[in-house]
Fold this protein.
Amino acid sequence: MLAVLSAAVVLVAGGGAWLAWGLRDRPDLSRYDRYLLPVANPAPGPRVTATFLGVATVLFSDGETAIMTDGFFTRVGLIEALTDAPVAPDLTAIERGLARAGATRLAAVLPVHSHYDHAMDAPEVARRTGALLVGSRTTAWIGRGGGLAEERIRVVEPGVPARFGAFTVTHVPSRHVALPLGQGSLGVELQAPLVPPAPVRAWPEGGTWSILIEHPLGSALVQGSAGFVEGALEPYAADVVLLGVGGLARQGEAYTERYFREVVEALGARRVIPIHFDDLTAQSGGPLVPMPRLLDDVSRSFAFLEARAEADPGLELALLPWWEPAVLFP
């Protein structure tokens, strides 16, 4: 279940115009447009592109092989996210999202953990693209509940690299960012297939990963949740970190400093790209909309990353264009 919306349970009780205003009050991130990477032109040549599709869904391609984290296209409304209303993958949204991204064939779909906004659509995305669904035991049960054939499901071995074309993918155990109203589904694993429709709380965390994606042209780490395991990433290196910042502003300055040190600095990254900052209840395929300040002031996280990049000549802050491929490695 998503961390950034659980705080709204308390706010709903307040009701009225104040709540409505608070959910419309969003930070203006337009000042960061100058950090947008240019859209990749169609010129031939070796390169790895990344296409940001929202939340922690990113499509990576080298022109021969494509892999995708999460594969989340279904946007559940706020009320459904906060209640026991049953939800299920939106097949139309998935079809349109894959077509818009040009993701007709994927080698692997890689959920960073198993909350609904990361893993609910993954079995259907894998089925439509011929991909392997790769993740935790809980992700595997979600795949089975979604009707995915067993041979299309792979439970990862932590720290053991897997090859997909020229990509090498390593799953490093991590932690989910703390939830504002308690740990809830954190640490919970499925023991049987999860068959949708079901309430969003039916999708537990099931273990969180830092996903290292290596290629002869460069390396990137996807940190889909703003949690960390102290020292876990020190044995690794990455040129680029796609850094989940959802819920980070709520953790305080000391935590933010530690998170940056344990992920970006530990890997020796030269480029940091924030992800998981957009409103996951916004219309699928619509404009990029940041979370309301009432739930998570992502502008504070952006300002922190900007200050860090300005203070370090060896580090670049960058943003991925919305639904358009950009060359990933500097």
